[in-house]
TrEMBL record:
Keyword annotations from UniProtKB, A to Z: Dioxygenase, Iron, Metal-binding, Oxidoreductase
Name of the featured protein: 2OGFeDO JBP1/TET oxygenase domain-containing protein
GO terms for MF: dioxygenase activity; metal ion binding
InterPro entries: 2OGFeDO_JBP1/TET_oxygenase_dom
Length: 194
């Protein structure tokens, strides 16, 4: 199945930001997980990996990383988010935990075209294939693979694998960025590295 976690986004049915009074809150699944204390333990356990993926973003899209850091800092000003943000070690404002799931080819519609999503896959499995059909590419997708891609632009999916597989798909939701006062990151360019 799939579980979506976020330290701060809008409740279901409130996906559009109308202004600075719109309240950000923990994702429902994270609230439920926190009630059982499993969410806190899980966030602590993946903290180092989440920070590492954030560091990868800093290298491959420095402006997006800077925007995301400013946004996380601004989220700390929301008192209702402070507890979960203490454990959230990623600059991304959302993560989907996808377990043993064939992911149909899709685009990530809640993001922005210019932004990268980070995908990583782990587990004892075989034969997973990552597809980018719009550009005619297919890749082996072994455990430990990390992929950064513009998920709103590039249609992507994963064929079923044999064994136990977990994908962590880190992303940023545009409506959350619209709610915060940080400026939006644009397309990455080689000038970011000069």
């Amino acid at each position: 199945g799939v579980v979506n976690l976020s330290p701060g986004w809008f409740e279901v049915g409130h996906d559009i930001c109308h202004g600075p009074d719109d309240t950000l809150c923990e994702s429902a699944s994270l609230k439920l997980a926190n009630m059982a204390k499993g969410g806190h333990a899980w966030l602590t356990a993946i903290g180092e990996s989440a920070a590492l993926l954030s560091s990868v973003l800093r290298v491959i899209h420095p402006n997006l990383y800077a925007m995301a850091r400013r946004s996380m800092n601004e989220m700390f000003t929301h008192e209702n988010l402070a507890d979960v943000l203490q454990m959230w070690m990623s600059v991304f404002n959302g993560v989907s935990v996808i377990c043993n799931w064939e992911t149909p080819v899709h685009r990530d519609n809640y993001s922005s075209s210019e932004w990268y999503d980070m995908l990583t896959t782990i587990g004892p499995y075989e034969s997973a294939i990552f597809e980018l059909p719009g550009v005619g590419l297919r890749f082996r997708y072994p455990s430990g693979t990390v992929i950064g891609l513009c998920g709103r632009v590039l249609r992507h999916g994963v064929l079923e694998a044999r064994g136990e597989r977990i994908c962590l798909a880190y992303y940023m939701r545009k409506n959350v960025q619209d709610r915060l006062t940080t400026s939006m990151a644009s397309w990455n360019s080689r000038n970011a590295y000069i």
